[in-house]
Structures are given as C-alpha cells and as structure tokens.
Amino acid sequence: MIRIKAGVPRRARPRTRFGRPLRRALALGLPTVWGAIAITYKLTCPLAQQNGLGARIVTSAVFFAVGTGLVVQVRRSLLRELRQIRQIAGAAQSALLRPLPPRLDGLSIAAAQLSAERGAVVGGDLYEVIATEHGVRVVMGDVRGHGIAAIGTVAAVLGSFREAAHDEPELPGVLRRLDRALARHLRERARAEHPASGALDPESPVAEEFVTVLLLEIGRDGEVRGLNCGHPWPYLLSGERVEPLARAEPLPPLGPFPLPTELPLVRCGQLLPGEALFLYTDGAEDARDARGRFFPLRDALTAAVAQHPLPVPRSVLGSVFTALLRHAGGTPSDDVAILVLSNDRKRALPHPGARGCDISGSAAGARPAATHPHSTNYPQHNGV
C-alpha cells in the first residue's frame, strides 16, 4: 500500500503510483525499438539482401550502430539502478550508524568507521554517544564476523542501547538490556534459518555469535565509569601521555555465556578538561602490513598527541586513520571503528579518586595511588 503524505495534491498521486512503472517500460521499450529496427532493416531493406562488399559494409554498420545503442542503453539503465540502490543502502546504513554530533554536553566528538566489505558503509562494529540525565553514555562494540552479514546484530544492539541509555538509571541495567536484546535477536535468527528447530540449537552456527561491548558513563564532573565485556579498554590521552584507561579484567563477550549476578562496575577516575578518550575496535590493532606486522596503535597515538598536546578529536582521528590505512596498504582485513571524546568543559575541582581505577563492590583491580602514573594525592568524539 502506498501512503500519501498529508498536503500532497490529489493530482500528484498518479505520478507517484505510475511514475516508476512508466520509467521501467521506457527502459525496456527503447532496446526493443532498437532490435525491431535492426530486424526490419534485414528483412525489408533491398540493400540488406545484396551480397556485394558495399552492401555488407552498410549492413554491418547498421547492426554495429544498433548493438552499440543497445549496450549504451542497458549500461545507462544498470548504472541508474545501481545509483538508486546505493543511495537507499547508504541512507539505511546511515540511519543505523548515524553520524555523531561534533559536540555533546561539553564533550567534543569525532568518530569514523571502515567496513572490510567493499561497498558497505557499516560493518560489524558499532558505536553511539547519548547525553542522558544520568550522564553521557557511550557504547563501543564489535560483532563476530564483519561486513554486511553482521549488520542485523549491530541493529539489535544499537537499538536496545538507544532506549536503555535513557531508561536505566545504572550502567549494569543498560548492559543487561543489551544482553537480552542480543539473545532475542539470535533466537529469531535461528528460527528464521532453521524453522523446524523452534529454538536456539547449541550446535547451530548462530549459537556461536557474540558481541564485545564497552559501556562508559561520563558524569558532569568528568567521572568515568565503565563495564567491559571482552572489548579493548580505551586509551586516555593526557597531554603527550597515552595510557590505558583501565587494566581491570573484562567480562566475557555477550552471547555465549550469561552475565554474572553481580556486575563489577569499574570506576576509572575523572576525565579532566583537556583530556580525551580514544575508543577503538580490535580491527585497528589487528591490521597487518604486507610483511604481516600488526599496526602499532599506541605508537601512532603517541605521535598524534605529540602534534596536538591538547587533543583535538578530529585531528587525532585523522592522524591515526591515515597511519592505519598506510600501514594496511588500503582497506584492512577487518572492520575498524574509532571514537574520540575530548572533555572541553571548564576545569573543576578534582574529584576524590580522580586518577586511578577500581571495581566497585570488589577489591580486585583496585590500584593504590603510588602505582598509577597519573596519581595525585588522592587514591587511585563528527566523523571524518
């Protein structure tokens, strides 16, 4: 059923309803006319019945012109259809992994994603930044596999995060919502691929799907809290220093195993004004050059912040992506997503525990002040 928007004149409706079939009829009609002209010439034209050299040259020229016209017309039609398909696919993929604003609640943001599958804008990596009443919440994830095949899982996780980020007062609640959304998506996929099973078969390939997820929450005072399910911890960029935001052991990825009853929320201190977080998927570290060497991500970051001591997200993102593509010789073999967030808020008084990272509710992973390179007197992102 075709829905007509309110306010569109009634006279415009036939154009909407019959415009596309008419264009298709013209696209098919012109080659038919070309073919009919060639056959008519061969059957009825006296010159075409002669066997002389001149007659053969003329007949060959006519058929060559007809063939050329057919090829040109078919090529134009295919290119027009391909252009329309790419526009539709680009719009759909942009709606899925929508562009992030350059600034959000005092944070500057830059993000970029590169799919390993040619022609795809979105692959198996996902990210989103949302300002909520609970703080700025960030998700960065990586679906098993890459390219177009992983887009369905990306849509399920991102759709759940965009709702849960506003609804859930605590970060563990957001993670549990993502876990349930992924499980529901995998059940539906298993049912669609194997209708007779009716459930998720443990030996089904769908049962092996998983998603690494990193959740961060940045408060108004810059305090950073996180939950990590099998994802690389981001780097903290402070001045010319580059170091991991946290060293706590991550939970297993979402999918294969149920979440534990108690989720260890990692408190990572404050993101001070002038500092930045560099989030990435493992495709950035796993990119190899022609000799099989991995991309030195930390070295590339160090070189980037040396040029920009007060990290500008777009500049850092551009420098690292340029170095990555140069290292990989073009397109990497896996999807790559990078997200840079810089704190542009006014400087505030340090929060107790402004430097360091501990796990709430657990002594494991707590780090004393003296062991952290950024320790003080306190205990321990649009796109290109």
Structural class: alpha+beta
User: Mind telling me the CATH class of the largest domain?
Assistant: Alpha Beta
Residues in β-strands, percent: 15-25%
Number of helical elements: 8
Give the SSE map:
Layout: H1 13-44, H2 46-49, H3 53-96, E1 103-104, E2 107-114, E3 125-132, E4 135-143, H4 151-167, H5 171-193, E5 211-218, E6 223-229, E7 235-238, E8 241-244, E9 266-270, E10 276-280, H6 282-286, H7 297-307, H8 313-328, E11 336-343, E12 358-359
Helix pairs in contact: 1-3, 4-5, 7-8
Can you describe this structure?
This protein has 384 residues and is of the alpha+beta class. The chain folds into two domains: 83 residues; 274 residues, PPM-type phosphatase domain (Phosphatase 2c, domain 1, 4-Layer Sandwich). The chain contains eight helices and twelve strands. A six-stranded antiparallel β-sheet has the order 1-2-11-10-7-8. Strand 5 and strand 6 form a beta hairpin. Helix 1 packs antiparallel against helix 3, helix 4 runs antiparallel to helix 5 and helix 7 crosses helix 8. It is elongated. The two termini are 39 Å apart.
